[in-house]
Amino acid sequence: MPSKKVVLAYSGGLDTSVIVRWLIENYDVSVVCFAADLGQGEELSGLDKKAKETGAKKCVILDLKETFAKDYVFPMLRANAVYEGTYLLGTSIARPLIAKAQMEVAAKEGAFAVSHGATGKGNDQVRFELAYYSIDPKITVIAPWREWELVSREKLLDYAHRWSIPVSTSKKKPWSMDRNLLHLSFEGGILEDPWARPLEEMFVLTVSPKEAPNKETILEIEYQNGDPVAVDGKKMSPAKLMEHLNQVAGANGVGRVDMVESRFVGMKSRGVYETPAGTVLHAAHRAVESITLDREVIKIRDSLIPKYAELVYNGFWFAPEREALQALVDQTQQPVTGTARVALYKGSVTVIGRKAPKSLFDPAMATFEEDSVYNQADAEGFIKLNALRLKIRAALEKGK
User: Fold this and answer.
1) Active site residue 302
2) 249 pLDDT higher than 80
3) Mean pLDDT of 168-187
4) Within-domain flag for 71
5) Marked catalytic residue, from 21, 92, 115, 124
6) Which of 113, 231, 294, 303, by CA, is between 20 and 30 Å from 152?
7) Is 23:31 a contact under the CB 8 Å cutoff?
8) What is the domain range of residue 133?
9) Which of 21, 78, 95, 354 is catalytic?
């Protein structure tokens, strides 16, 4: 039995199933598979047995759903992070937690190296490895996709067949899937044609909007200091709250995204995502912020959203600049306590109400009816001061 150990980030899919055997054959090592339960559900069923049958010495599976929701997803949602205006970063935010837990397993097992199944073209290789090195700068990283000759899905399937490795990917359904509490992603196969419409049979978390109920589903989501804590008056843990919203929103066809994104390594990539709970929480959070956050605070925080999202997407979760941004974001979230009411209907989320115990919305100030708290004549001086530079510019232009 080889004395050296490698801890592999293992999903049981095509790539990592092949990697177990490949590591044994090419590095003469014992492979310890590691899987983080981030809400994959039944995908983890039989994983331990499959890993060992493929050649792994053992398989460590850790339930990290609550940690994922509380310490990774919720901080990102507090920042309203959206990448390129569309992507809610479901895969991106999972990688740093998986890598961190994998490194803890590696330390416990006395492993000299860690490995992953990310391709040399993708973002995940960067996300995993930046996290590894931020924890242990001396760790050895084995990235098979940057070494082997199995450079296509077809070759991987042939290798799996040769070693009798059972895989769920097939030549009829060649797209890859990655699932957690926040989303389910699809890439590859027919999706490599950006003009091709995703097949309805692909989707798992959401029904087709056409098949969704013909009546609205109304939800009330309560927030405390920027984090959702209850739905319809029922307190829930972070993970349970997301699981509940995934079911309700998914049943209403909410959360489907089809986009072409800019990968960190420089190429464009087409991805299809299902993010039911995240889509609802993003809208609800914005609604509560609208009556609890000062205008200038919103401007500053919103100006940082593209940078924050870019840091998460590119794998810099454990970088000092992300931590600094998080500190600012979390400071802005102290007053964000209140409730948003949303309507789900055939794929859409519509905010239909918001309230807060310390709301900045003052009906006496905002009313179009007669009031005694706002002197409308004050607006004249306000307008003239703001118009001064415009008047000077116009006068100069007329003079010319």
Assistant:
1) no
2) yes
3) 80
4) no
5) 124
6) 113
7) yes
8) 5-64+90-170
9) 95
